[in-house]
Amino acid sequence: GAVVSQHPSRVICKSGTSVKIECRSLDFQATTMFWYRQFPKQSLMLMATSNEGSKATYEQGVEKDKFLINHASLTLSTLTVTSAHPEDSSFYICSATTGTESYNEQFFGPGTRLTVL
Amino acid sequence: GQNIDQPTEMTATEGAIVQINCTYQTSGFNGLFWYQQHAGEAPTFLSYNVLDGLEEKGRFSSFLSRSKGYSYLLLKELQMKDSASYLCAVMDSNYQLIWGAGTKLIIKP
């Protein structure tokens, strides 16, 4: 149980275009979803936290107008990278919690490799 | 500030035992997690400790000392597939995960 999927797994786009990444909890309702970015050989960096039906909470230094997050349902959150630039190339990972476990374990999606040319 | 420290890289031999240490300084503590991450993949959950002591799960064990701000992940009977990065993460008083940079474990035959 507790499977999280992400789509697409890889995307290559031209500079200036927008890219949407979907994160779905397949067999549970996710009260909270998290979006991370990971650059090569670095740790996960939390970008934002989103709860269903409310605005996402962005971490300091993350531009909310550039990284649009929509958490429309308890099983789906989307991250849209607007006007992507080469420096946005990274591994984007989402995770979700059920909110039912005492320690709120995060279940991770398989990640999306974004390459901006 | 909040800080998680773990070694950048470790090397061990197949069949041996390796211990990966993690020290932390965070605002509050609501548990410590260990995750395994293979290159190009998302992290997968290994263990969770919130009380002092050792948690054993098959070949993997995790230890926590809250007073020392210290944890370790112990891997026994190492296999080649254990080559991966191991991430230590602490949940702070706001229930937010603070991540270490990860320890790259290289297993040699």
Quick one: biggest sheet of chain B? Answer: 6 strands, mixed
Helix content of chain B: under 10%
* Structural class label of chain B: mainly beta
The 3D shape of chain B can be described as: globular
How much is the radius of gyration of chain A in Å? Answer: 13 Å
Overall pLDDT metric of chain B: 93
- The Cα radius of gyration of chain B reads 13 Å
Principal-axis shape of chain A equals globular
Oligomer: heterodimer
Largest sheet of chain A: 7 strands, mixed
The pLDDT mean of chain A sits at 89
Find the structural class of chain A using helix and strand composition: mainly beta
Extended strand count of chain A? 11
What does this 3D model show about the protein?
The complex is a heterodimer of chains A (117) and B (109). In chain A, 0% of the residues lie in helices and 50% in strands. Chain A has 117 residues and is mainly beta. The radius of gyration of chain A is 13 Å and the shape is globular. Chain A starts with a strand and ends with a strand. The mean pLDDT of chain A is 89. Chain B is 0% helix and 57% strand. Chain B is built from no helices and 11 strands. Chain B has strands at 3-5, 9-13, 18-25, 32-37, 44-49, 53-57, 60-65, 70-75, 84-91, 97-99, 103-108. In chain B, the strands form 2 sheets. In chain B, strands 2, 4, 5, 9, 10 and 11 form a 6-stranded mixed β-sheet that branches. A 5-stranded antiparallel β-sheet of chain B has the order 1-3-8-7-6, with no helix packed on it.
